């Protein structure tokens, strides 16, 4: 066994990008997140996603800047640790562990939701507890993630690629039919959806929260820094690619959905009331056979997101254990596959146990998905803010030779993250009003741990210093680029 993540073959750019796209789950995001936006702003949904892309780009800037110099399985844990110090790094990393584990819980729960929906579209019901389907999905996740990381990446690429292709085809059909005057109920190609259209600035800003959630997890490929060929080139490119690819896709699909339902009051109400907007439009504009394809890709997308979430969780748990936090077996790497299988088993075990408890206590899979997705996002906002503070410190230090005027970008990013956290925390009804406190207690536990354990902080600092060379170190060895 070894403490280094060295897969038999290094990941290429597109394979690293696949992990981020898999965690964002574009098919799920587009099927479920539009309703929350349309309820706030009416037909101005595409405008909100344009602004959401700007917001997430501000956040992504920090990750792109730092991963050009530092790459590590710990992602935020290492990026903040090397720029702000080991205590800040551990705090941000601990928050991100919460995110990825919570995301694994919710995506395993989402899989039976969409499997049942697909079965219903075929005309039958599974008639089994939702935990059973989640457990089967968990076994499938283990089979994929316990193998070489390239298997994970290619599985994600295939699954999400099919979903993206399906959404692109549906969007093209909707745009064509409405643009040529053949909308099923007289819908037209209405470009005014990119304006405020009678809504208020306050409503648009509030709806930005739902749009931002669609990009949650874009940074996942940063956890593959030790497994990617030429990481200082490919990881930043994968980060940029994941944001731009999904950004263009989200804007197109939300535009198509908005005009597909119709921009009048009736169409807006139909969009807001759709349980799965993509499935509803697929049936209306193409036919039942295409609805089955969309329903299947949604279930596959949930499974893919569980693969990506647990893969990212295992890398971060491994990185923390390698530096002295947690049992030593968690830092073991399978010699054949080069993956942290013990850490993976721990992450999946905790997530599956959480799903079992919730199922036994009567919580539905749908509620489990939304509850833990919310908890994961709240912890993620904290981790993003820590990374943003890290890039500010890095710019001020002059180590990366970044122009100081660029400091405005991470400052705006942190302000945006604080706004999103506030919107997610204030005015919520039960049980969502408890989630900011739960997420806060998780992050506080990480902070207390590192404050009362100075030896842990010192050990982390020493390990990070050894593992991450200074960006201006001329002796640093770079890996050759891989096509």
Summarize the topology:
Elements: H1 13-24, H2 26-32, H3 34-41, H4 45-67, H5 76-84, H6 86-122, H7 130-145, H8 149-179, H9 201-213, H10 231-261, H11 265-273, H12 277-285, H13 288-322, H14 341-360, H15 365-397, H16 408-425, H17 435-451, H18 454-467
Helix pairs in contact: 1-8, 1-10, 1-13, 2-13, 3-9, 3-11, 4-9, 4-10, 4-15, 4-16, 5-6, 5-15, 6-7, 6-13, 6-14, 6-15, 6-17, 7-13, 7-14, 8-10, 8-12, 8-13, 10-11, 12-13, 13-14, 15-16, 15-17
Which segments are poorly predicted (pLDDT under 50) over 5 or more consecutive residues?
470-483
Q: Give the full name of the CATH homologous superfamily.
A: Amino acid/polyamine transporter I
CATH architecture: Up-down Bundle
Order of helix and strand elements from N to C terminus: HHHHHHHHHHHHHHHHHH
- The domain count comes to 1
In the CATH scheme, the class would be Mainly Alpha
CATH fold call: Amino acid/polyamine transporter I
Please characterize this protein's 3D structure.
The chain is globular. The protein has helices at 13-24, 26-32, 34-41, 45-67, 76-84, 86-122, 130-145, 149-179, 201-213, 231-261, 265-273, 277-285, 288-322, 341-360, 365-397, 408-425, 435-451, 454-467. It has a single domain (13-467), classed as Amino acid/polyamine transporter I, CATH 1.20.1740. 71% of the residues lie in helices and 0% in strands. The chain is an all-alpha fold and 483 residues long. The relative contact order is 0.20. The two termini are 29 Å apart.
């Amino acid at each position: 066994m070894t403490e280094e993540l060295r897969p038999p073959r290094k990941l290429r750019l597109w394979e690293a990008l696949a992990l981020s796209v898999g965690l964002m789950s574009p098919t799920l995001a587009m099927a479920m997140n539009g309703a929350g936006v349309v309820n706030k702003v009416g037909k101005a949904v595409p405008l909100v996603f344009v602004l959401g892309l700007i917001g997430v780009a501000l956040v992504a800037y920090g990750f792109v800047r730092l991963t050009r110099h530092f790459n590590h399985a710990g992602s935020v844990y290492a990026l903040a640790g090397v720029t702000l110090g080991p205590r800040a790094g551990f705090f941000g990393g601990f928050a991100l562990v919460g995110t990825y584990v919570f995301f694994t819980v919710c995506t395993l729960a989402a899989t039976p939701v969409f499997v049942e929906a697909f079965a219903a579209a075929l005309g039958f019901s599974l008639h089994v507890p939702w935990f059973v389907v989640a457990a089967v999905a968990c076994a499938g996740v283990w089979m994929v993630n316990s193998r070489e990381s390239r298997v994970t990446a290619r599985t994600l690429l295939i699954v999400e690629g099919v979903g993206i292709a399906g959404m692109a085809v549906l969007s093209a059909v909707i745009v064509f039919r409405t643009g040529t005057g053949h909308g099923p109920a007289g819908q037209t190609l209405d470009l005014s959806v990119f304006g405020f259209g009678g809504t208020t600035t306050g409503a648009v800003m509030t709806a930005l929260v739902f749009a931002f959630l669609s990009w949650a997890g874009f940074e996942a490929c940063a956890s593959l820094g030790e497994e990617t060929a030429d990481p200082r080139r490919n990881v930043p490119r994968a980060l940029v690619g994941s944001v731009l690819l999904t950004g263009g896709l989200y804007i197109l699909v939300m535009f198509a959905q908005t005009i597909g339902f119709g921009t009048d009051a009736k169409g807006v109400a139909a969009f807001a009331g759709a349980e799965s907007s993509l499935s509803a439009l697929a049936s209306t504009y193409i036919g039942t056979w295409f609805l089955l394809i969309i329903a299947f890709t949604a279930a596959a997308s949930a499974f893919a997101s569980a693969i990506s979430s647990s893969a990212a969780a295992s890398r971060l748990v491994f990185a923390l254990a390698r530096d002295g936090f947690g049992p030593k077996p968690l830092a073991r790497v399978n010699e054949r596959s080069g993956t942290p299988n013990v850490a993976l088993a721990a992450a999946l075990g905790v997530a599956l146990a959480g799903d079992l408890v919730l199922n036994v206590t009567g919580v539905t899979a749908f509620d489990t998905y939304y509850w833990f997705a919310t908890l994961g996002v709240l912890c993620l906002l904290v981790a993003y803010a820590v990374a943003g503070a890290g890039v500010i410190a890095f710019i001020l230090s002059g180590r990366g030779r970044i122009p100081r005027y660029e400091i405005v970008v991470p400052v705006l990013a942190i302000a945006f993250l604080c706004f999103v956290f506030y919107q997610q925390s204030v005015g919520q009804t039960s049980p969502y009003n408890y989630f900011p406190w739960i997420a806060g207690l998780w992050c506080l536990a990480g902070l207390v741990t590192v404050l009362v354990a100075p030896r842990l902080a010192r050990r982390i600092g020493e390990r990070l210093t050894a593992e991450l060379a200074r960006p201006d170190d001329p002796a640093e060895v770079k890996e050759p680029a891989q096509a």
